[in-house]
Amino acid sequence: MKAGGFILASKRLIGIDLGGTTTKFAFIDEDGNILTKWSIPTDISDSGSQIVPNMIKSIADQMRREDYNTNDFIGIGMGTPGAVDREKGTVVGAFNLGWDQVQQVGPTITEGLGLPIAIDNDANSAALGEYWKGAGDKADDVVFVTLGTGVGGGVVTNGKLVHGINNGAGEIGHICVQKNGFLCTCGKRGCLEQYASATGVVKVAKSLAKRFTGKSRIKELIDGHEDLTSKMVFFLADNGDILANQIVNEVCSYLGLALSHVGNTLNPENIIIGGGVSNAGNTLLQPTTRYFQENAFKSVRDSTKLKLAQLGNDAGVIGAASLALKFKNDNAL
Amino acid sequence: MKAGGFILASKRLIGIDLGGTTTKFAFIDEDGNILTKWSIPTDISDSGSQIVPNMIKSIADQMRREDYNTNDFIGIGMGTPGAVDREKGTVVGAFNLGWDQVQQVGPTITEGLGLPIAIDNDANSAALGEYWKGAGDKADDVVFVTLGTGVGGGVVTNGKLVHGINNGAGEIGHICVQKNGFLCTCGKRGCLEQYASATGVVKVAKSLAKRFTGKSRIKELIDGHEDLTSKMVFFLADNGDILANQIVNEVCSYLGLALSHVGNTLNPENIIIGGGVSNAGNTLLQPTTRYFQENAFKSVRDSTKLKLAQLGNDAGVIGAASLALKFKNDNAL
């Protein structure tokens, strides 16, 4: 862009990924490339009252360090736990942050930094990140499912995030995969989250170990009341433990089934699996794909691809930053 | 709109709803109101070679009868069975029409009538109709499921139809609702279509009748090898037949479960149930809503409404006509 004979560099975006332990930040260019990234611990003391002031200070400090001012930025995008009012920029019910009352996150940050801000929930932000710069390949229709402590999701159709009438779109973790199955924290039974989250995998392990009669390191750990993690289950499956393989198979059968429901509804080009459990890689992806294909309608089976997420921990800040692209025209020179 | 001192009336749309038995037509105004509607039998003889010529003739005749010429219309929209190439305007694999080879439907109609045409599949057209003028209330996110001979569906998000990468979006009839359940025509087992279509209801009836030990008119009909229809099942359920009520309950449990998967994925404002089976009204809707609520995540359960379709047989022509709205600007005076 030229103005008065000078060539002006394109502006930057600021992405914030607010988590219960760490708050991640990045300065990102308009093409979604990370220019700088950093993080600070999330201070959840005093009902999380320091979270927003700490964010503002951290961004202001970083801008000063890099000799930037507000004119160098288009705006801020942020992903957060809890329920977001996207119009007002408020957040409520983010209990892991201590935010049980409505928080004026957006207005406070805009006042503090002089930049417009767009806020969405963390699963949607990560979905946008993978859609924009990761495994989503900017396909028109992409679904993102994240297997972490819980199971979350984000849905992009016709190139746009779907929120639903009550921000309930993407609640893939609460698709029922087993009638009268494990009791979920949401009050229902048999939700995917109880089988395919990090804690879900351990639940499946304990359930199957009871009936297992052979020799297995997993069974030894459980019988000895030692700690068991989903990571160990996948590691032992890779190393030939029979019970571990049965557990992985069961987890993937539920995940593949739930994703087939999503596939039969939307036939997205890509369904992207992210979150900590997805670090298991092909040990998770292959059997899940098999069960997905077994349950997907022909035209879906032949076209919708299951993929592992590519951006890891950066998906959140990149996707959050993409929310701020909407301010581009408002701020045009 | 004024031009040269005359007030020009707004233009019309033509909607075509092509079915295996009947082809329905309508002239529709830009607000979606039907001005004229009529239908002709669908001639599927000779591999359906007369279908398109018959359509052209029928529309041309009607235009002449009403003293219209092409300038009075924006364009044509059409819903059809089979697989549609929306860009080329071709249709293939509509076996109930005898169309097993690629048909140049769009180009032929445009050549014959001098009007642009947009084609989509019949379930999507009906979904658009209900979205535009029926139970959808033009909400941003609406899902339509049609319970007829089979079970089809259409998905609208952010106000736009979702097709998916291979036109497989809305294949709600092939969501698996019962592991190792009834064999479906698609080759999979336990598809919703095998439980909630008109033939599916009868299948459920026969299956439950085997185990039923009490007195039931349905059991008498089945044991006597007499004809049984889904309509009779719902009628008898309304009249206190115990087995009929068990059948309806089972059908609705599967339908409610499948719709909860759709709800947890998209949280649409409305999920609209249409097709012949939906003529059962509240006898179908109430238990389905109960099972939907039992399986939907809290934020979805509290916001997504299940509704009966409102347009009946007109949904197809109205929705098809809406496809032609995209020609409005091209054809502007």
TrEMBL record, chains A, B:
Transmembrane segments: none annotated. GO terms for molecular function: ATP binding; glucokinase activity. GO terms for biological process: glycolytic process. Its EC number is 2.7.1.2. InterPro entries: ATPase_NBD (IPR043129), ROK (IPR000600), ROK_cs (IPR049874), ROK_glcA (IPR004654). GO terms for cellular component: cytoplasm. It holds the Pfam family ROK. It is an enzyme of class 2 (transferase). PROSITE patterns: ROK (PS01125). Keywords: ATP-binding, Kinase, Nucleotide-binding, Transferase. The keyword Transit peptide does not apply. Belongs to the ROK (NagC/XylR) family. This is Glucokinase. The lineage of its organism: Bacteria, Bacillati, Bacillota, Bacilli, Lactobacillales.
